Amino acid sequence: MINNNARRTAALAAAAIAGTIFSCACFAAKAPAEPAVVRLPLEGSDFPISAAVTVSKDADTYFLSGALPPVINKDAPKGSVDSYGNMETQTTGALNAIKGTLARLGLTMGDVIKMTVFMAPDPSMDNKMNFPGLMAGYTKFFATTEQPNKPARSAVMVAGLAAPGALVESEVIAAKARH
Length: 179
Hints:
Blueprint: H1 4-30, E1 37-41, E2 50-55, E3 59-67, H2 81-84, H3 87-104, E4 112-119, H4 131-138, E5 152-157, E6 168-177
Parallel strand pairs: 4-5
Antiparallel strand pairs: 1-2, 3-6, 4-6
């Protein structure tokens, strides 16, 4: 038969263990959370893209359709490069369209984690890819003082885009931590 002192000692020991477990659980719950989005910089480069981006289960992910540039010169022949402008102008226009869609979702360009850019041959560049023009527009939105985040990105040349005269189409994936 166990005496009352032994019962009391056992009860106190159980309470102490339970209190320790409860304290540990509370401490663990208060530990700082890992960021929902982590960007891995390109090694040894200041090029304005990330090598990789990791998104945790604590973030929502958004997939945006490709955006083409708007027509900026209605007097130019329909379906001409002149109707959309040069590569920098077209890139800026397409990214402004993406920026608008993101804003409707409560997001910013800083939430973009992945971008795919499709470029048509540029007649002003002997029908080659106009990468400098792309970068001139792109760097207005990414790796700036106001918006330092850099998405992972691919840029490829394609035979043509859905809109004749368009030189660029961009699609993005964005992610943001849940609140």
